[in-house]
Amino acid sequence: MEFFYYVVFGALAAVVAALELGGKSNKDRITTSQAFNSFKNNYILVYSLMMAGDWLQGPYVYYLYSTYGFGKGDIGQLFIAGFGSSMLFGTIVGSLADKQGRKRACVTYCITYILSCITKHSPQYKILMIGRVLGGIATSLLFSAFESWLVAEHFKRGFDSQWLSLTFSKAIFVGNGLVAIIAGLFGNFLVDSLNLGPVSPFDAAACFLAIGMAIILSSWSENYGDASESKDLLTQFKGAAVAIASDEKIALLGAIQSLFEGSMYTFVFLWTPALSPNDEDIPHGFIFATFMLASMLGSSFAARLMAQNSPKVESYMQIVFVVSSASLLLPILTTFLVSPSNVKGGGISFSGCIQLLGFCTFEGCCGLFWPSIMKMRSQYIPEEARSTIMNFFRIPLNIFVCIVLYNVNAFPITVMFGMCSIFLFVASILQRRLAAIADKPKAEDWVAMKERDTEVDPLNAP
Questions:
Q1: Percent share of the chain, pLDDT over 90
Q2: What are the angstrom distances between the C-alpha of 351 and each of 228, 243, 274, 421, 446?
Q3: What CATH architecture applies to the domain 38-227?
Q4: What does this protein do (predicted)?
Q5: How far apart are alpha carbons 372 and 370 in whole angstroms?
């Protein structure tokens, strides 16, 4: 492994260690109760196991498909199946989570993702396609049901609202940072050191998911969305759409989330071919661990920013989106400024080194994004239909990613990075608007909307 990888990894690790060991300040001065600490630690343990199951797969999905003999176009179709299923079924499973129970939805995530992992053993395209569909459904549950359960349970137990940001930041720091780094290194150990093959990380992921499911079943209580109603799915969709349309802040938040996550998921597909355009031999697991260390650094900054009254989340996220936009411009700049290498195989090129630094910057922005968007969602999204609305947000991002991947062979990789950069810059503009109206009261709250709809359509009355 080239010395460059160790330098980048070591530098990021040193900064994270300095922040965590030497910079403990505001966030640790918040006085919490023993009951809350137990609740928080239980959630972080479960969330970390769930993320371990997800992160172990990330670096090897593209690589596994390529070892089965599929080209970039075929692999793009498989990725489309995952994002397409997340788009088609995500809102349905989100609404079912609100109606049938968030704990039940979390268990469903574990079962669905374990089945998806099992399909990776087959080199048959149809079986892999089924696995991608199951993975798309699981992803929708991962990014809606767990957060919805946490927020509802947090307030049901009477904990201070300020403490919620502690759980968010710590969950992202551990689950999206520390666990992701360990998962990347562990995957690299399984594939490269033990030579167990690219399917071995998926088997390990299934084991972690099974352990997490056992903890959920034994220690979590159930909670629901709006328990006062027994509405069908179509009515739930309508209510969520009304909530988004009636409150500009919710609509802006949804657009911002879609633009950022759409760019992020496109990046997940693009970083491997970007760093190895001539089939350079790159350590996928170690690079992934480096990305996650950068994300861990970002979440550490987010924890400190959210523990202070100033600047507000709505303000500093404008800067985050601008920086993330600039970082994804590097693959375009290196194309014009650095002479391309035509040597097949070998180690990472000079332009690849520059891009790797930019990608680490982008991952740092991702680390800032996750706890910050969670904080804003807890403030603006009504509890009664939280999972439904959150999965509504995922529809446009999945459409965007599917369009990009469908045309993956039609456009140069620099064009796709340019699109992502533009979308991130648009997100910064929308974030500026959200910051400007953050303190304005909603024109109509959720309860008032329900009462009005009941008066207009008495058939929907409970």
A1: 30
A2: 58, 46, 10, 18, 51
A3: Up-down Bundle (1.20)
A4: Mediates high-affinity intracellular uptake of the rare oligo-element molybdenum.
A5: 5
Fold match, 38-227 / 231-439: yes
Q: How far is CA 413 from the centre of its chain?
A: 22
Residue with tokens 């009664």: 384
Q: At what angle do helices 3-22 and 350-380 cross, to 10 degrees?
A: 30
pLDDT at 27 over 50: no
Highest mean pLDDT pick, 87-101, 194-208, 395-409: 194-208
Checking if the pLDDT of 402 tops 80, the result is no
- Output the CA torsion sign for 281, 413, 342, 340: negative
The answer to whether the CB of 386 falls within 8 A of the CB of 148 is yes
pTM: 0.73
What token pair was written down for 134? Answer: 């199951």
| CA separation, residue 103 to residues 96, 216, 392, 394 (Å) | 11, 7, 20, 21
Q: Going along 321-449, which residue ranges are E strands?
A: none
Nearest to 412 by CA among 336, 349, 343: 336
Question: Cβ of 457: how many Cβ atoms within 10 Å?
Answer: 11
- Which pLDDT belongs to residue 204? 95
Interhelix angle 200-219/34-55, nearest 10 degrees: 150
Mean pLDDT of 86-99: 74
In the chain, where are the structural domains located? 38-227, 231-439
Cis? peptide before 311, omega within 30° of 0: yes
Q: How many CB atoms lie within 10 A of CB 170?
A: 20
Homologous superfamily (CATH) for 231-439: MFS general substrate transporter like domains (1.20.1250.20)
CA angle 147–148–153, rounded 5-degree value: 100
**What's the CA gap between 59 and 199, in Å, rounded?**
11
What mean pLDDT, rounded, does the chain reach?
Answer: 83
**Most confidently modeled range among 5-14, 87-96, 176-185:** 5-14
Residue type, 431: Q
| Closest C-alpha to 222, from 107, 310, 323 | 107
pLDDT of residue 220 exceeding 90, the answer is: yes
Give per-residue pLDDT as tens, 181-215. Answer: 888 889 888 988 888 888 999 999 999 999 999 99
